[in-house]
């Protein structure tokens, strides 16, 4: 079991705060908000799916920028700028009553999310590795789990007294102090640039090799597999269940509660089983969650999907990032950015394909088969991934 030293705690909390801002108050709060925005007449379901795709396109762009700006000095410049622009676009969303304007803001918001979501954990992981505490890196993602719970409460508590674009105000107001405090802590980290040891050749700069390609392909399946329930589960509950059912809004609360313990759980599972074996178990549980929504339509399927996907998707992220760094420890931030970029391509494809399926007369429920197939693909490729090397 990972023991957190006192000097690590402020850094882990700062990383958690930053991820809470960009990934839950920025991205995932859209999931419980979407049914209300549709009910308010601000969006149609199809427009909601399209806007989700614009956000994921921005996320991809941000991750690609993180590949380009992967050096520690570059991260120190880009990270605060990305956080500031993210908070600004979240504030502007409170005034966006036009779907096209909201789509543009979600695009920029997603770009900042992708950049920060790569750079903040990568910076912290490099610092933790210097402290011989890399095994604690997964605890940074507790911010996402806690943020899901906070976002669920925000949407539920404000549902009756906010309307339309004003529903973004709680997220905007909380983002500002958390982003400011989180960056102040991270700015103090003494993480120098990597340098090749004297007398040794510089290690290869290739991202794709025999050890990393299977991991990249598996991670692409994870990105497409989890994004459908994480985007559309409350909407699916609204379509399948009676009006006023607790699960219309409560399904996101269940996801949040399950996610809250996930970083600690999978951080410990990786330490005990090895990151590769823990990831294989993770993929199977996540697949079971999506299949539950498909094969058990109604309340039972919604509940199982929320609990199983909610308790696993962050584990996929933290274990894959750590396993990737162990395979190529000389370019940790760069391989992290490349994996997130591929992950975001798959996330972008999921809502877009769902939108196309809905345009052809398909149902939101049947679109979840895409997610199940993607997770099965991911598990199959995980069987070919080598175990981690010593960093």
From TrEMBL:
Membrane-traversing stretches: 51-67, 140-159, 216-237, 243-266, 301-323, 335-354, 366-385
Keywords: Membrane, Transmembrane, Transmembrane helix
Residues spanning the signal sequence: none
Stored Pfam families: MFS_4 (PF06779)
Gene Ontology cellular component list: plasma membrane
Protein name: Predicted arabinose efflux permease, MFS family
